[in-house]
């Protein structure tokens, strides 16, 4: 499932990605993903030595962000839906616009008291946001996908630790809400948001993806295909990526794509 966070960003048009890992996991990620050039993207790596919270990503990655809009996606989140690309690109465009602001993605759940919950108006502007509220004001949980304008690094750098001693991404979002700049893209019927942080949820996600791929004959979240369709790599580059995997179904899938061309 490692590819899913990366491909979510690629679908949003993001081509420069900082992968933040624990110290002992970094070498494995580098061996698997490389520098990203095989997909026409640039991958860099950084370490979070102590698990001090999600917002610390913008402190660790301050030089990487370098005053540009940015996005954050959690490594165990999977998103799927027919209109997802449009929503991702809309969130990226909002972060880059003159008015700026932040965008979170909301997913309807039956047990919102277990999540961070946002209340939104008809235009998608967030009216309130609460972490695991006893009486939720909506059923929309805030997922692990966030788009921010250039203010985010300074906001994250000035956070105080929460009661559990972490720098919370919820506090970043709360500051954007205070400034009247927090928006939500709602993932409605027909979308899937899967959190693979436990063995059971990982198994469920694997079954979901397997069913889709077997039924449709299409790969879900293939970085090679996304890069090819976007014109970031050529058919020749795609075929070269497929060559080491020519004896397995994924490599054969890429070979068919290369033969069919981008519009295939």
- Rg estimate, integer Å: 19 Å
Low-confidence stretches: none
Overall pLDDT level: 94
Distance between the termini: 26 Å
Share of helix, binned: 25-40%
As laid out across the biggest beta sheet, the strand order is: 3-8-5-9
In DSSP terms, counting alpha (H) and pi (I) runs of 4 or more, how many helices? Answer: 11
Report on this model:
This protein is of the alpha/beta class. Helices cover 38% and strands 22% of the residues. It is built from 11 helices and 10 strands. A 4-stranded mixed beta sheet has the order 3-8-5-9. A two-stranded parallel ribbon has the order 1-2. α10 packs antiparallel against α11 (249-260). The mean pLDDT is 94.
């Amino acid at each position: 499932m490692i590819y899913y966070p990366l491909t979510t960003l690629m679908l949003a048009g993001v081509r420069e990605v900082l992968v933040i890992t624990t110290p002992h996991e970094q070498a494995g990620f580098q061996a698997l993903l490389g520098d990203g050039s095989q997909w026409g993207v640039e991958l860099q790596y950084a370490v979070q030595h102590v698990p001090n919270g999600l917002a610390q990503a913008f402190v660790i990655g301050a030089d990487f962000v370098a005053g540009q809009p940015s996005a954050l996606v959690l490594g165990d989140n999977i998103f799927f839906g027919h209109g997802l690309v449009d929503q991702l690109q809309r969130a990226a465009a909002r972060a880059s616009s003159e008015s700026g602001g932040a965008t979170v993605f909301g997913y309807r759940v039956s047990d919102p008291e277990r999540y961070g919950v946002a209340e939104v108006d008809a235009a998608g502007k967030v009216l309130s946001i609460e972490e695991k509220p006893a009486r939720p004001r909506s059923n929309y949980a805030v997922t692990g996908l966030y788009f921010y304008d250039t203010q985010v690094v300074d906001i994250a750098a000035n956070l105080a630790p929460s009661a559990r001693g972490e720098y919370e991404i919820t506090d970043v979002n709360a500051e954007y809400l205070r400034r009247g700049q927090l928006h939500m893209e709602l993932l409605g019927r027909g979308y899937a948001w899967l959190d693979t942080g436990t063995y059971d949820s990982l198994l469920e996600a694997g079954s979901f993806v397997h069913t889709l791929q077997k039924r449709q004959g299409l790969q879900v979240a293939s970085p090679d295909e996304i890069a090819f369709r976007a014109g970031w790599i050529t058919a020749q580059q795609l075929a070269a990526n497929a060559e080491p995997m020519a004896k397995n179904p994924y490599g054969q899938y890429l070979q068919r794509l290369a033969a069919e061309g981008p519009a295939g």
